[in-house]
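Example record

The entry below shows one chain as it appears in the dataset: sequence first, then structure tokens.
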Amino acid sequence: MGRLQRIGAGAVVALVAALLLAGSVAAVYALRSFPQLDGTLRAAGLQHAVAVRRDEADVTHIEAQTPWDAWFAMGYVHAQERTWQLEFNRRLMHGELSEILGPATLDTDKLMRTLDIMGAARRQYAALPAFAREALQAYSRGIQSFHAARTQALPPEFLLLGARPGGAQGVAWAPEDSVAWALMMALDLGGNWGNEFARLSLAATLPTERLWQLMPPYPGEAPATAVDLQALYRSLGVYRAPQAAAP
């Protein structure tokens, strides 16, 4: 019995030691994934030196000599602090979550591809003025520059899911992705689109005063506007001209 007790005690000690070692390794890895907040970093792509400062509230302040360096540095800092969030968001709007999360997100991927979020983003990006495209390009280059010479470990989510920034394409964040995320925000904040569409349809036949009677504002609030919405929308070409009846 004494020998069995010694073997059992030895197994417990070995298990505790293994757990402590695993915990230490995990802690070291987590610490290595934190961004460097002090000192100097070199980022290929900057035209001039940029100062990045975090205040006591952990708000990041960027001081740059040109707008393009400011956009670049913002992308770099986002990659430092939010690499997993950027990757998750990129996969979400590209419809690629199921590659790392499995069948649980397949319906979400199908929805994103059906809505053609990325196709719409590419068309909108191509129609942007040159200065806006250049700003988004600079932001994207900042993210890519971080990954090209990364000094910190990737967040644990990458290790656990076997993922890498940019997936198979290796582009952690393209300029069009910023436009796509704006569309995703619009989709997320547009949960009342059904009511908005119903109001638009009703305004074609109802005067504004009657419209607010049918669809009143929140209690205690005044109607949003007294403008003749029907006339406004017709002047903007929102409503089709009435078709002449067949003889």
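Notes for this example: DSSP finds eleven helices and two strands in the chain. The chain has two domains: 51-189, 193-235.
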